[in-house]
Design a protein that fits this description.
heterodimer, A: about 700 residues, alpha+beta, five-stranded antiparallel beta sheet, 20 helices, B: about 180 residues, ten-stranded mixed beta sheet, 3 helices, about 15% helix, globular
């Protein structure tokens, strides 16, 4: 796994986020510790270029890190704000507050501390210690200078002595000078090579080497040279004076270690002080860099922490806001899947509980709604809910079927929907909503059939609209009318039929007695007898209608019944043919005799109304029912007569009892079926009998 | 507000090093002989800075780094660098023996060490570069060559934080036969 993958993997890991500032702080502390330790070691360590280089690079890295984190955070915040991401403004405020509250004191502390440090460093060198050390060193140097001057005096005397160039006398001169000037060594060098020397036997002359050629060059150039040699047992101070030619007189003083060490310590102490003094700029730089590193580390940590903390705070808030938005859009049950243990955690828990409860309630409401919808869709009563300004809110299937409306979108204007044949409904609606009536019964022609609708309206609530219930009372009305006609037929049969037989018998007796002689009487009596016979047949029809037998249901093949019915009328008119189209497997629970009679009545009317052409009898399956159709290409039925067609004693033929279709209607009704009359295309009439299957 | 800003600026710029010395390369001469180029120049104004002398006398190692380049001079195009050399003189004062140890390194290799007791002599040796046969130009034409040199003297600190090298400007001279 590459470093980049590692970073991408752990960049949002809290442990990683906390670890980075900690590592930086630790590194800074380590550098600080090392610096503190370095103080005890040597002044060079403080101004060590490596240390300064390390500090400089740490500072540079920290500055780059801060700039990176800051710029990255700022860019992200700007982009988030531009895209309107929830929580970005809050995050911006948090980060700005964090940074502002930490930046100001940290920067102030840094400025004050570094200034204090610089002042303190300057004060170190302004103390009397410097003067004391300088004086001490000067005294030490003066002591050495004094020894050098003694040696110089001795060397000058050797150089000034004429015997110094005499090989036989030089030893004496050197011994005299050594004794007289109390130097530890007196010598003569020729061309840099020791010629003669006289030394104090107590002085460790063997510890010091002969001067270098550069020393003698300096003597030749400056007429004098001083050489200080530090040896194990002390310090040699030698001064050289040229004699003549290549000869050089050298005298030296040995300072024992007891004294030379003190001298050296003074010199070294002052040297160290001077080094520190010379390095005060570097010292200030290293200390300031260290302070800056700590400051930058704190700033980096603060910045990092602020961004992390703001993210930690805003993430649940953002999630809550997004979840609320989802909830508002209908996402009930949406949960915020973020772990939190603080107050925000409690808020998230409450939100999740609320969301779950809303989802449950929503589910219950949906169930109730579905139940109500199912009920409304399954009831035979039409239900229409509409607003106060007569805009549709909902409509059930029964209402759509009653009014023969297709798919209607909610919000449609009822006044526009209820036009044409449905205007009576609209008028009744206006009356009901105006409060002038609570229920209304209207007769409307829907799909070419007369329907009786009973309307009742109820207000849902103030401003909530109305609900309209439509009850199709067509069958009830027809049943009431049929019942009335049954009663009338029964009474007519009873009241009319009884006197008919005496009338007929009396007319026949009059004809037999007086008709032979008087043709007019015979003709009159015959007419009476014929009309009475006609009246009796009519009364019998009425009586049969009134005494319609109860149906006896059994399973029977529909095709057989229809074929039998068609067979009765197939040859009545030579130019009229009857075709039967029915599936052989249609079996129904019915009274076969009654159905045969009903279809026969329809075929009888069809044959009478048709001069030529084909009468089609067919049967087909439909959902939950079987539809029998009898279609003829005859004269057809005017629309104005269609609503009265199934009433007893209504006939368009001018003769007949007008009970045929009434009987058909009654048989169909007794089978819990329906019968409809439609115009046949291109001409004629088409009857539809729907029987439950 | 403006006064505060000025105060902060003054505060920040106060620690800037004092007016820096203005050392420069003088008397740059390059002489070619049998395909070899010897370079000689002096560094002027190096010890005008009292802090430099103070640091030297304190025993801290004090160094000058000379960068010398020889290149073919192409007036209307980039110069063609032929060779570079780096000469360092590092001086350390021994206050116990009152001697200055001068190490001379060329391209990071020690060339020679010398001891001085005379500060003036030391300064002269530190600021004088006389490198015989420093560059080998082979069969190239010397009059087309130029030599340039600069010296890095010391490191300062801008606002005590940003390292800042005190250097001379480059000085150029044409190679003479």
């Amino acid at each position: 796994m590459s470093f980049r993958d590692l970073v991408l993997r752990y960049r949002k890991d809290p442990r990683f986020i906390v670890s980075v500032p900690l590592v930086i702080l630790t590194a800074t502390s380590l550098v600080y510790y090392v610096t503190q330790q370095a103080k005890e070691l040597s002044p060079e360590a403080l101004s060590n270029r490596l240390l300064l280089f390390v500090l400089w690079n740490i500072n540079l890295l920290l500055v780059i890190g801060i700039l990176f984190v800051l710029l990255r955070g700022v860019v992200k915040l700007v982009l988030e704000r531009r895209h309107g991401i929830i929580g970005s403004r809050f995050r911006t405020k948090l980060v700005v507050t964090y940074v502002a509250t930490s930046l100001l004191p940290v920067v102030l502390l840094f400025l004050v501390a570094t200034d204090l440090l610089r002042v303190s460093i300057d004060r170190w060198f302004a103390t009397p210690v410097g003067t004391i050390l300088a004086n001490s060193e000067a005294i030490a140097q003066m002591a050495q200078d004094q020894s050098a001057e003694i040696a110089a005096g001795a060397a000058r005397e050797i150089a000034a002595s004429p015997d110094a160039r005499d090989a036989a006398q030089v030893d004496r001169v050197l011994a005299h000078v050594r004794e007289f000037h109390d130097v530890d060594i007196a010598a003569v060098y020729r061309a840099g090579i020791l010629l003669k020397a006289q030394a104090d036997p107590r002085a460790p002359i063997q510890e010091v080497a002969d001067p270098s050629s550069r020393f003698f060059e300096q003597v030749a150039r400056n007429n004098r040279a001083v050489k200080i040699d530090v040896v194990a047992s002390g310090k040699w101070i030698r001064t050289a004076i040229p004699i003549a030619g290549d000869d050089v007189a050298v005298a030296g003083v040995f300072i024992p270690s007891a004294m030379s060490q003190r001298i050296d310590r003074s010199i070294i102490a002052y040297r160290d002080f001077q080094q520190l003094h010379s390095q005060r700029q570097q010292l200030k730089a290293s200390q300031t860099s260290l302070f800056l590193a700590v400051t930058l580390a704190i700033l980096f940590g603060t910045l990092w922490t602020s961004i992390y903390a703001s993210r930690r705070i805003t993430i649940p808030i953002k999630a809550l806001a997004e979840a609320t938005a989802k909830l508002a859009e209908g996402g009930y049950g949406h949960r915020v899947e973020i772990e939190a243990t603080d107050e925000v955690g409690r808020l998230i828990t409450s939100f999740n509980d609320m969301s779950v409860q809303l989802a449950d309630q929503r589910q219950q409401l949906t169930g109730t709604n579905r139940f109500m919808t199912t009920v409304l869709e399954s009831v035979s009563t039409g239900i229409i809910a509409f607003s106060d300004d007569l805009h549709l809110l909902s409509i059930n299937r029964a209402a759509l079927q009653m009014l023969q409306l297709g798919e209607v979108a909610p919000g449609a204007n009822l006044c526009e929907l209820l036009r044409g044949d449905l205007e009576p409904v609209a008028a009744a609606l206006q009356e009901l909503t105006s409060g002038r009536a609570r229920t209304r019964e209207v007769a409307v022609i829907v799909g070419g059939e007369l329907h009786y609708l009973e309307l009742s309206a109820a207000r849902l609530g103030t401003g909530a609209g109305w609900v309209l219930a439509l009850e199709n009372s067509t069958q009830l009305v027809q049943a009431q009318k049929l019942a009335a006609w049954n009663e009338a037929a029964r009474r007519i049969a009873h009241e009319i039929k009884n006197p008919l037989t005496p009338i007929q018998l009396s007319a026949e007796r009059i004809a037999r007695k007086f008709g032979k002689d008087q043709p007019a009487i015979e003709e009159g009596c015959r007419v009476i007898v014929d009309e009475v016979g006609h009246l009796k047949r009519m009364v019998d029809e009425f009586a049969r209608f009134a005494r319609m037998p109860a149906i006896h249901l059994r399973h029977a093949q529909l095709a057989e019944i229809l074929q039998q019915a068609a067979g009765l009328y197939r040859d009545v008119k030579p130019e009229v043919t009857i075709s039967v189209d029915v599936a052989p497997d249609i079996e129904l629970l019915m009274d076969p005799e009654q159905i045969r009679r009903a279809v026969g009545n329809l075929l009888k009317n069809a044959v009478e109304a048709t001069d030529r052409g084909e009468i089609r009898v067919s049967a087909r399956r439909a959902p939950h029912r079987v539809v029998i159709e009898v279609a003829d290409p005859g004269r057809g039925v005017p629309d104005s007569d269609k609503d009265k067609l199934f009433l007893p004693y209504f006939s368009t033929k001018g003769r007949g009892t007008g009970l045929g279709l009434a009987i058909v209607h009654r048989i169909v009704r007794d089978h819990d079926g329906q019968i409809h009359v439609h115009d046949n295309h291109p001409r004629g009439t088409r009857f539809e009998i729907e029987l439950p299957a | 507000m403006r006064a505060s800003l000025i105060a902060v600026l003054l505060f920040l710029t106060a620690p800037l090093a004092a007016a820096p010395p203005n050392p420069s390369i003088k008397d740059l001469r390059a002489t070619a002989n049998a395909g070899k180029v010897s370079v000689r120049f002096t560094l002027a104004g190096a010890f005008e800075d009292s802090e430099m002398v103070e640091a030297l006398r304190s025993g801290l190692p004090t160094s000058f780094t000379y960068s010398i380049e020889i290149f073919r001079d192409r007036p209307n195009w980039f110069n063609d660098s032929i060779a570079k050399a780096r000469v360092e003189v590092i001086c350390t004062y021994n206050s116990l023996t009152r001697e200055y140890l001068l190490n001379l390194r060329r391209d990071r290799h020690l060339v020679r060490s010398e001891t001085f007791t005379d500060l003036a002599e030391l300064e002269r040796r530190m600021t004088t570069v006389d490198e015989v046969d420093l560059f080998d130009i082979g069969s190239r034409k010397p009059y087309k060559m130029k030599v340039r040199a600069k010296a890095d003297l010391m490191r300062g600190w801008l606002m005590y934080v940003i390292p800042w090298e005190v250097s001379t400007k480059w000085r150029e001279a044409r190679v003479r036969q």
